Amino acid sequence: MILMVIIFLLLLFWEKEPDEDLVLTSIEHSNVDYPKSRIPVRYCNSMILQRIIREPNHTCKKEHIFIHERPQKINSICVSPRKMACPNHSTFFCFQSETKFKMTRCQLIGGTIYPACRYHVSSLEGYVLVTCDNLGPVNFQGFVE
């Protein structure tokens, strides 16, 4: 009987191990890098690994964008008068930033299965498109140069 109580208590207080498939998907986690990380070489490769950026089936993303702007400024996109249908023909509305943001584009150049992905880095500026809910930006939908 005492052994059963001890086993019960152990199970009760046993720490659950983190689920490796659980990945944060907030726009701030996946697309915002402000201020831009000072990674001198292979910026995209490092950031994609650090943030666990991949497709749901664990393949490499073909392209990913990091936005180098203050989160508060990104949040303000949701009150932009530039509201439109999202470019992916979904039923959601997108909001476009009123100013251009600095971004880094990571384009896949090698690898197919995460984490063996290699990316080409390019800097760009453009208007950011996001979907929003009552709390702010939910998903990055793209950009307009």
Written account of the structure:
The protein is of the alpha+beta class and 145 residues long. A hairpin with a 2-residue loop joins strand 5 (118-133) and strand 6 (136-144). Helix content is 21%, strand content 32%. The radius of gyration is 20 Å and the shape is globular. The termini are far apart. Strands 1, 2, 3, 4, 5 and 6 form a 6-stranded antiparallel sheet that branches. It has helices at 2-13, 27-31, 43-51, 71-75, and strands at residues 63-67, 83-85, 93-96, 101-110, 118-133, 136-144. Residues 7-24 have low confidence and may be disordered. The chain has one domain (24-144): P-30 Protein. It has 4 helices and 6 strands.
Topology diagram in text:
Layout: H1 2-13, H2 27-31, H3 43-51, E1 63-67, H4 71-75, E2 83-85, E3 93-96, E4 101-110, E5 118-133, E6 136-144
Antiparallel strand pairs: 1-4, 2-3, 3-5, 4-5, 5-6
What is shown here, in short?
The chain has 145 residues and is an alpha+beta fold. The chain has 4 helices and 6 strands.
Task: Give short descriptive properties of this protein.
145 residues; alpha+beta; P-30 Protein; 6-stranded antiparallel beta sheet; 4 helices
Uncertain runs = 7-24
Count the beta strands: 6
Q: What proportion of the residues form beta strands (DSSP E)?
A: 25-35%
**Main beta sheet:** 6 strands, antiparallel
What is the third-level CATH name, the topology? Answer: P-30 Protein
**Helical percent range?**
10-25%
Q: What radius of gyration results from the CA coordinates?
A: 20 Å
